[in-house]
Amino acid sequence: MKGEMETMEDVVIVGAGIAGLATAVALKRVGVRALVLERSQRIRATGAALTLFPNAWLALDALGVSHKLTRSYDPLLKGSVTNINTGDVQQVLFPEQGTRTVHRKALLEALAEELPSDSIRFSSKLAAIESQEQGGGASIAVVHLEDGTTIKSKVLIGCDGVHSVVARWLGLAKPIHSGRSAVRSLAFFPQGHRFKQEVQQFVDQDKRAAFVPLNDREFFWFLACKGENMTGEPEQIQREVLEKYADNFPSIYLDVVRHTDLSTITWAPLMFRHPWRIIFGNLNKGNITVAGDAMHPMTPDLGQGGGSSLEDAVVLGRHIGNSVIKNGGLFVQGDMAKAIDDYVKERRWRGASLVTGSYLSGWIQQGGAKWWVRFLRDRLFYKYIFGFLAGLSQYNCGNLPAVSSGKED
């Protein structure tokens, strides 16, 4: 019956994206059940694919799911950057520990498979949130869904993306538009292709594009450019890329775009939250916090959106898990605010540094026509600055605590 259902949970996670599913897996590993609320009718895989750097693989190791993906995707060891205007080609080396580009859907499914089937509730759209004081410093988060359902929770984690309802409730400033947008898609070659396992990137004034093989038949490709409007149906977006945005790009890039799987093509403005809003903003209140894009939305220029979400999940799981262990295997509500506070302290500066590094990387590579910007990009960035920024991916977020008997596997 509509509006009459009320349940109580230990942890409610809003959003079944990378951050939400990974956090649920991390909590399961430390013996805590979480209910994941997802507004869509099924797992969404918008974005087609993503590149995971060493920090992401260390987080996936901690979650116990990395082996499911590493056997399907080969590591990328190098790439090239072609300057469209001059024809200059520069080589870029990736970390030896392995950088892999994976299907977003494969990552989401690898995480979802680890969870009990009843732990993700689809078609669950958030209407409102409130916090009820319980005395003794403890509080309960109350989630109201649009279908009239009310769910009470000892901990609420917003993993609901760039336009997070939970972040808004916490009072975090809205993400802003970077002035750039990106098309992302998969391309399919039914007869196979002969490209090496390398990233091929192309830079032009105000534009940046790349493609990377996922396997012997599929590519992930993207194009980022200034502005925010590319309208219409998938075929129209593909045509605009070919005829307007990348018309002067090499034929190998255009050939990949021509082989686009139109069901995977998306066009979106690139949003980010100012780093000082992350450093000084309210990332938690009592037993309510945010993770992933809800906490630190960033442009994709360092490929750290997915990796940082996986890091958040492990760190959250570690602090909540340590609280459970300290309390003899019990989920003690009064201790959760401190566990969440410790998580936020650990993630605040890391998130801000990744947002800053990503923005700088994008700004330099698509900085425009000024001579000094071109000099910065063509002479300094790929040789010196990129290596420094890529060093942000050489990060280990740590492991999950081992819970004694009763540990869920």
TrEMBL record:
The keyword S-adenosyl-L-methionine does not apply. InterPro entries: FAD-bd, FAD/NAD-bd_sf, MOase. GO terms for molecular function: FAD binding; monooxygenase activity. Residues 10-354 form the FAD-binding domain. Keywords: Monooxygenase, Oxidoreductase. Signal peptide: none annotated. Belongs to the 3-hydroxybenzoate 6-hydroxylase family. This is FAD-binding domain-containing protein. The lineage of its organism: Eukaryota, Viridiplantae, Streptophyta, Embryophyta, Tracheophyta.
